[in-house]
Write a structure and sequence with these properties.
- The complex is a heterodimer of chains A (293) and B (228).
- By secondary structure, chain A is α+β, with helices and mostly antiparallel strands.
- Helices cover 72% and strands 8% of the residues of chain A.
- Chain A has helices at 2-16, 18-55, 68-80, 92-102, 107-111, 132-139, 152-194, 196-204, 209-249, 261-288, and strands spanning 57-62, 84-90, 121-126, 145-149.
- Chain A starts with a helix and ends in a 5-residue tail after the last helix.
- With 228 residues, chain B is α/β, with parallel strands linked by helices.
- Chain B has seven helices and ten strands.
- Classes of the chains: A alpha+beta (293), B alpha/beta (228).
């Protein structure tokens, strides 16, 4: 019977305050859409940097007088490191072929060179670009190693930019969350303010605080959930129809606008959870003042 | 039923509304609280429903020490203390029936009880024919009857009325007083703040006079003012 009362009260109030309901729903939808947008931006940054990181490799140039078993030792040492994903051996001949390809337009660069003038090398791919310095330091000075090259500064800067961008998107997410909760609290406060006489009388005749609170909270949660669904739907549709087009347009960046279903579902779950959360927190905040006395 | 022991109330800003008053009221009494504006009448009434809390002293209502009553129990106190106000406090968008039913619904009474008790109480206050009217279609006296019905539908032990006739003409006021008298005869303790001389003088009930936050007179079967 109680549940019945709360539900019918909630529905009546939502209907009676259509404007407020619409305002609350659109507030949540817009705030959460921004939040979702920021999460998508974060995923995009992630895609871009992981592509960059995939290109990061350490070139270990080997001395010409290296013994074959020294090369093998080095390779097996590297293979045993957790940070190392893969090793490619590039012989002197292969290095020369690559050089030729690279400067195909300028035959004068390689025509004069003896075929064995370029050193053999090991190209090391890492599981994470963060380990570059570490691994490079370990192999530098190993027997048979001439020099280690990993484009140090560029990688460092790349990693810095990446972490800066992620910090910015995180800060934006937090700010948007707080803003959304405040907006919802405010909208509910307006709805409550419009009905303060009713609440006053409820208190007067001995309604408990929870009895008064629950319909408002259901209202807040309902509005927030609908808002969250709207924003989730927009994210879903964008993923379906918009991102691939933008991706085509920005092809030179690679497939940065392609997200897995699970990534998108996480964003949706986040939006709905956050929506419900701010619905509850917002209405609690808004109700506190009115229930004193 | 009601007991105040050296109750003081000082509002923020240092206004002394009550200066240590002690009174006691028995079950079934009809008590007028009289005195000029600013004498502490309204504060006195608000203390009974714990709308305000005393700065010092003890208040017992329906056997409970209000100081020891936790916040969440206050609604249960108010179910035993019906309130009537000068400005009726009816919900304009609800009908007469709905206004009274609301008081039962929000304390969780089942629909069957609501359907039985609301017409009964409205019959008692003489509005049995106007269940579906809205407050603004009623006269002031009728609106006050609705608010009394709302305060009494739950059969509280105590009815507190703060200037219930303050907005009504003398003839209508007489009707309201008859109604309160009838409610009192059912055994309900009625506490009414007023500065309507004629009413107090005609009823000849207990009168507690406040002035400047002190009880200056407590007289059974009293009149509004001594020698006036």
């Amino acid at each position: 019977m109680r549940a019945n009362y709360f539900l019918s009260e909630t529905v009546t109030n939502l209907k009676r305050n259509v404007l407020m309901t619409v305002a609350a729903i659109s507030t949540v939808a817009i705030s959460l859409l921004l939040l979702g947008g920021v999460r998508i931006l974060d995923l995009t940054i992630n895609n871009v940097t992981s592509r960059w990181e995939a290109k990061v490799e350490i070139s270990t140039f080997l001395r010409d007088d290296i013994a074959p078993d020294e090369t093998e030792d080095l390779e097996s040492d590297l293979a045993n490191m957790n940070e190392v994903q893969g090793i490619t051996y590039v012989s002197k001949e292969e290095a020369f072929e690559e050089f030729k390809e690279l400067y195909a337009d300028h035959p004068e660069f390689y025509e004069t060179l003896p075929k064995d003038s370029l050193p053999a090398s090991l190209r090391i791919k890492l599981t994470d670009a963060d380990y570059t310095q570490l691994v490079a330091a370990r192999i530098r000075g190993a027997p048979g190693v001439d020099s280690v090259n990993f484009g140090g500064d560029i990688i460092k800067r790349l990693l810095q930019v990446n972490s800066l961008l992620r910090t910015i998107t995180l800060a934006m997410s937090v700010i948007l969350l707080v803003a959304a909760a405040a907006l919802i609290a405010n909208t509910i406060r307006l709805a409550i303010y419009a009905r303060r006489d009713e609440i006053g009388i409820m208190k007067l005749v001995g309604a408990t605080n929870w009895f008064i609170r629950i319909p408002f909270m259901l209202e807040g949660v309902f509005a927030a959930m609908v808002g969250a669904l709207v924003s989730g739907l927009v994210v879903l549709l964008s993923n379906e129809f918009l991102f691939s087009r933008v991706g085509n347009f920005l092809q030179f960046l690679g497939p940065v606008f392609e997200f897995s279903t699970s990534e998108i579902l996480w964003v949706l779950a986040l939006l709905i959870l956050v929506g419900a959360g701010i619905g509850i927190v917002g209405s609690m905040l808004a109700l506190r003042r009115f229930l004193e006395v | 039923m009601i007991k105040m022991v050296v109750v003081e109330k000082t509002y923020k800003g240092g206004i002394h509304a009550l200066n240590g008053i002690s009174v006691e009221m028995e079950k079934g009494e009809f008590v007028f609280i009289v005195g000029p504006s600013g004498s502490g009448k309204s504060t006195f009434m608000k203390l009974l429903t714990k709308e305000e809390e005393p700065t010092a002293g003890e208040i017992y209502v329906a056997g409970k020490n209000l100081a020891n009553l936790p916040r969440w129990r206050v609604p249960y106190l108010r179910r035993n203390v019906g309130s009537v106000f000068q400005d009726f406090k009816l919900l304009p968008n609800k009908t007469v029936f709905e206004n009274v039913a609301f008081a039962l619904e929000v304390i969780g009474r089942p629909k069957s009880v609501v359907r039985r008790q609301v017409p009964q109480i409205l019959e008692l206050v003489g509005l049995g024919e106007k269940l579906d009217r809205f407050p603004d279609e009623l006269s002031g006296g009728e609106q006050q009857r609705v608010s009394i019905a709302r305060a009494f539908v739950n059969r509280p032990l105590i009815l507190v009325a703060d200037e219930p006739t303050g907005n009504l003409d003398p003839a209508t006021s007489v009707g309201i007083m008859r109604l309160l008298d009838r409610i009192n005869r059912t055994g309900t303790t009625v506490v009414m703040a007023t500065h309507d001389h004629a009413i107090v003088d005609s009823m000849r009930r207990r009168v507690i006079e406040l002035e400047g936050g002190n009880v200056v007179r407590d007289q059974s079967r009293g009149i509004y003012g001594v020698g006036t």
